[in-house]
Amino acid sequence: MPGSSERFLEKAPTVPADMTFLDLEDSVAPLEKEGARQKVVRAIRELDWDDRVLCVRINAWDTRWTYGDVIEVVAGAGERLDEVMLPKVQTAAEVVALDLLLAQVEQNAGLPEGHIGIEAQIETTRGLINVEEICAASPRLETIIFGPADFAASMEMPVLTGGVQIPEYPGDHFHYVFSKILMAGRANGLQVIDGPFLKIREIDAFREFCQRTRVLGYDGKWALHPDQVTVLNEIFSPTQEQFDKAWAILDAYKEATESDRKGAVMFGDEMIDEASRKMALKFVSRGERAGLKRSAS
Ligand code: GLV
Ligand code: MG
User: Does the Cβ of 148 fall within 6 Å of ligand 1?
Assistant: First the structure.
């Protein structure tokens, strides 16, 4: 949600998203940047944000606003704020610099040390080259995010819309990028999130496009409109059938290993082992987060 728009800020808590970020970066015009900080602080303090993860996207280190954004927003609304998002991260040092600044602001604001987490956006070629070091740069890091619009600009791709298919390309033009970010994130225990799809009226194309990162293993994707939120909640949650099967695998595996002392057994017409347990756990935790309950058998 653009931090300069009171109308959008008021609407944000009514959108059923797991996480909301209030933006001070690219959706805010340069002349509104400083004024938006207090609007964001007021929105965080005064609106009811339920239990969602609440984040503010600050401006990148190559601007003159980064430290002012952090100081004003964290000092003014740090108590309810869960994270700040750092865009256009190019090196691990940028994450370290933010970590150090946050430590001082937290101390001065009387907040517990480490209270504010960091989300980092990978959206430049240099950021992608350094993504492994970036993902390991700070214990505050919670999430790594791909930014397709800025990334297309950084690559100098001949496109005018970010984050959508390119029909002339025989395959997925971002497959390598998606995989590289996912591996770096997972290797460091981070959540991995896909960025925006800018054609907000094309819901069917959005639904189709979301599958690319969902099947690779991403945890979720940005929404720019409430209609996109509805699709994402459906696509990134397991189906009831998957949820029930995951539970059945866990039960069968427990029985096999603990009662029968076997590491690999047949489950229907497939073989399951420890790796199956790990795969099933992910479906169970996601399903529970989405409010699913195991069907009566
Ligand atoms: C998001 O910030 C993007 O550039 O895609
Ligand atoms: Mg961007």
Answer: yes
